[in-house]
Write a structure and sequence with these properties.
Blueprint: H1 9-21, H2 45-61, H3 71-86, E1 90-98, E2 101-110, E3 114-124, H4 134-154, E4 160-167, H5 175-182, H6 186-190, E5 192-198, E6 209-210, H7 215-228, E7 233-234, H8 244-249, E8 254-258, H9 267-273, H10 297-315
Parallel strand pairs: 3-4, 3-5, 5-8, 6-7
Antiparallel strand pairs: 1-2, 2-4, 6-8
Helix pairs in contact: 2-3, 2-4, 4-10, 7-10
The protein binds tryptophan, calcium ion (CA) and zinc ion.
């Protein structure tokens, strides 16, 4: 008998024991509840960084930014969309207008799963006009993209339906994500079992913050960091300041990760996470120095792996 892609030999052994005790036939498939769900992959941080290098090049070639209504935004969207299309996603561009400029959301559906139970992960893809926006929010955008590509590479067929999103015009006030939520029918809104947000997850002087929203989503993220031996804190730098807010307002369970923006890291936080006390988590927040140099590889790696872990766990 062949168990599904379980990485845990002890659990596989337990399934066999249960089958023997219950007289289960070796020829018959084990009941689904006794088979360990497929384990989430380790996301290669080099792949995530390669996306950041591309987003930096796009900004550099387009006046130094990837802001709403500018050429660098659309080029960023085209880059992400091409990767998803090649990986087998069904992609949709949703167009809207804000401040007299055209903006776009990118939605990518992974075919299969129960479309009455949709797990979403998203990030804003726009930068401010002052810089390339590599930590804010190339980091979240690249991690969500690489998680989506990992789903394709693994041939993951979750029980629930997976949907990934890259939002436009977050920096103008959550415009793209609000547009998406406002244009969902109440029926389709009710089908979203959770929305996971990733905005600034590679801050150079990082903290490890988990949104204190839906308890099950929060626990999933905390469990991942506990397994790494990395302490977390509740995110408090600006509740409602990112794209999970419109979902939360519409009654969708939300959660997410954050490594800090302009707030200062305390001595107590340095004691648990290292880094520099008395300095901002991200000294380049909304500045021209938010480039590929403005990233903690360790934070980017841990948070990308946590994103994949949560997507797998919550959709299985
Ligand atoms: N969303 C903000 C931005 O893009 C950054 C930010 C501030 C944030 N506080 C937050 C993101 C708390 C997530 C959670 O500029
Ligand atoms: Ca990794
Ligand atoms: Zn942001």
């Amino acid at each position: 008998m062949k168990l599904s892609v379980s990485g845990r030999a002890s659990t596989a052994g337990l399934v066999t024991v249960v089958m023997l005790l219950t007289g289960g036939s070796i020829a018959g498939a084990a009941p689904a509840s006794e088979v360990t769900a497929a384990a989430a992959p380790d996301i290669p941080v080099a792949n995530v960084k390669a996306h950041l290098t591309q987003l930096q090049s796009i900004a550099t070639a387009n006046g130094g930014n990837r802001a709403h209504g500018r050429a660098g935004y659309k080029a960023s969207l085209d880059y992400v969309k091409a990767k998803l299309d090649a990986a087998g996603y069904t992609t949709t561009i949703q167009q809207f207008t804000s401040s007299s400029r055209v903006g776009y959301n990118l939605i990518a559906d992974w075919p299969g799963g129960d479309t009455n139970q949709v797990v979403m992960a998203g990030s804003h893809l726009d930068s401010v006009t002052s810089g390339a926006g590599i930590n804010d929010n190339g980091s979240g955008s690249a991690a969500v993209l690489e998680t989506a590509l990992a789903v394709s590479r693994a041939g993951y067929q979750p029980t629930k339906h997976l949907r990934f999103a890259w939002w436009g015009a977050e920096e103008l006030g959550l415009v793209g994500s609000r547009y998406y939520v406002n244009n969902l029918s109440s029926t389709n809104r009710a089908k979203i079992s959770g929305y996971l947000n990733f905005d600034m997850i590679g801050s150079p002087n990082p903290g490890y913050f988990v949104y204190d929203d839906d308890p099950a989503i929060e626990k999933t993220f905390k469990d991942y960091f506990t397994g790494l031996g990395v302490p977390t804190e509740i995110e408090t730098e600006g509740d409602g300041r990112s794209d999970h807010a419109p979902f939360k307002s519409a009654g969708v369970p939300v959660g997410g990760l954050f490594t800090g923006a302009s707030r200062t890291k305390t001595a107590a936080q340095v004691a648990k996470w290292g880094g520099t006390s008395g300095q901002a988590f991200d000294r380049c927040y909304h500045s021209s120095c938010d480039t590929t140099s403005n990233i903690s590889d360790t934070a980017l790696d841990r948070n990308s792996d946590a994103a994949a872990y949560a997507v797998w766990e919550l959709s299985s």
